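Supplementary Methods S3. Complex input for the threonylcarbamoyladenylate-bound model.
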Amino acid sequence: MTVTSTTSILKVDPSAPNPADIQHAADLIRNGDLVAFPTETVYGLGANAFNADAVAKIYLAKGRPATDPVIVHVASAAMLAEVAASLPSLAHPLIERFWPGPLTLVLPRGKRIPPNVSAGLPTVAVRMPSHPVALALIAAAGVPIAAPSANLFARTSPTTALHVMESLGGRIPLILDGGSALVGVESTILDLSGDTPTILRFGGVPIEALEDLAPEMRIGVRQLADRDASRGAGTSGESDESGEKAMPAPGMLITHYAPRARLTLIGGDDGEIRRAMTRLVRDRIQAGEMIGLLLADEDRDVLLDFPDQSQIRCVMPGSLRDLDQVAHSLYAALHTLDGYGVVRIFTRVFPDEGIGRAINDRLIRAASGQVVR
Ligand code: TXA
Ligand code: MG
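Predicted complex, serialized as structure tokens:
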């Protein structure tokens, strides 16, 4: 266990970070220590990607199984050349268009990247983040930075420094606080190491934006439509184990991104969702539970069904017509509901397009794979 007695939070200007503060954090990275830092997607927990002992500290601090590989962050083309052994031709136009930004590419692993970065795989996942603090930190460290999301394993990802402090406080020496992460969900992962480009995770870059450059692309994750088609196989949902078998990406567990409260995800058309929500919430309130609701702005009338809201806490991350806003606020909404101490959260399936696919993917995993109606 990497127990550090105190965790400092260093506030940095997200658009123009103070070079001395960045250098302080970069020195820790170079010394083999961990630093949590903001990216445009979520906060990352960084270590020198060339140093196997430093990378091992990430797994310890997060309580993450060694079978779950981490993403390497670079700040330049020269650094990419030290991380990946080679670049498939499709990598060039994708990098040109989407870097820096929330697209992670899985590539053949270069010799300087120790096996524990990639859980022993011959590949490495790499991206160039667009957040100025992340770029400045990597450049000042002069080494690529291996960084998973800066939360305890399988829990809700952090989009603020406070979220990081709540889950990793006492376990790491430093958190760079660059404000709240803009995109709010993790990067899209595209595997370019095989014959067919394959999406391993929905994320900040919508797959619709990748289609013209990668028309052959395959979706290697189960989608909402697959889950709806498999409904009727019982209401108990799938187990972690069966979900895991359906996932080709290592570490993409079906139970993931989970708040402390149990989460129920409701599907259907808008009317069905709201009726089911009212029915399910009424049952739990009668059972005496404190309930959290994570609603779209358009669902707010559900609250009218509950004149006494003493057992309800509600957050609304945004409109069904502004999924970027919902993604930005999604994890913060889950953290907020957990902070209220609710025992159960009810939420809805969002429109399954663009960044909505990433929103639904995270909610499905937080709900252990079940969509109810
Ligand atoms: O937006 C993001 O990607 C954030 C920020 C910090 O950059 N990072 C992030 O890391 O989401 P993490 O550890 O929470 O997710 C990493 C996932 C792994 O669980 C695995 O599914 C996939 O990336 N991955 C990493 N290396 C891989 C590899 N060599 N092959 C296939 N999948 C890989
Ligand atoms: Mg994560």
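Residues 290 and 341 are 8 Å apart (CA to CA). The chain has a mean pLDDT of 93.
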